[in-house]
Give the backbone structure.
Amino acid sequence: MIKGLITKIESKDFYVLTGQNKTYRCSLRGKFKKVFALKKDKLFLTDIAAVGDHVEFDINKNESGVIHSIKQRTNYLSRKAPKQKGAGYRGERLEQIIAANIDQVFVICSIFEPDFNNRTLDRFLAASESAGIKSFIVINKSDLDDDNKIEKWKELYENTGYEVIASSIITKMGMETIKNFLPENISLFWGQSGVGKSSILNVIFPDLNLKIGDISNYTGKGIHTTVTSNMIPIDNDTFIIDTPGVREIEPYGIRKEDLAHYFIEFTQFLKNCRYNSCIHDHEPDCGVITAVENNRIPIERYDSYLRLLATIEDDLHF
Ligand SMILES: Nc1nc2c(ncn2[C@@H]2O[C@H](COP(=O)(O)OP(=O)(O)O)[C@@H](O)[C@H]2O)c(=O)[nH]1
Ligand SMILES: [Mg+2]
Ligand SMILES: [Zn+2]
């Protein structure tokens, strides 16, 4: 039995990297047919093995492998699987795992092309928080920021407690800052298509040669490729994960009554709510609503919160 790390998944092929720096193409043993994950006391049907999973496998005569066991994850990042045409609402793969066992997430957005969208950013942040993973915000394409929009957003998010890095692959702004956070960590680069995730990684690690998306991709009209996250070893303790294009994500498995915990600056006000079951929507004597009125919580973040709250289905558990 050999130990390894899943670095890439293509359909039913799992690419597993060993300590000897060799990658084997593996399949999953038959027993891994369905896996139910427990998240916030509810069961969900979920992906069986993900990029970042530690596995044990055997090698066949033809040098391909069979995975026998998957080590328990310390954490994992996921989103609601996109609805598939023809599939029932409760169809399989309700949850799509982006990657497992991550130290930190860089949520990348751009100020222009595509336009900065704070609600989209907040969805990525809430998903990372619900997975219990530290996240950084990168606002890229600062070279296109003609009317200084980045400054306002940077200040807003810094006040909530996030580290915000303004960046550009043209002027190289922010590249050293991002690079300095990476050593000895497993770092995942997440965000909408076209914001510059792969471009930034190519600047920081010029040997990578990651594929750069066509600018038309973020309009959603481009061809949808089905590649998964791609984990790249930098050295023995440093890994980066580039993620494929998505237009939008919905966090998965978050209950209405828990959502406020994933808006980090809300948490200090929750004790002021009159009702334990408060979802900070319309309830009287709500600590969050009061904080919004007193400008202690930015209205932009509360607006994101309400919109996200409205997308959480009550029936999505069994
Ligand atoms: N002006 C400008 N364009 C950028 C910057 N970063 C990336 N791009 C462009 O944005 C497009 C999408 O980049 P890509 O790295 O593929 O984005 P990804 O989908 O997030 O990986 C490409 O045409 C890049 O050349 C930047 O800082 N400034
Ligand atoms: Mg990319
Ligand atoms: Zn409340």
Q: What stands out?
A: The CA atoms of residues 230 and 242 lie 5 Å apart.
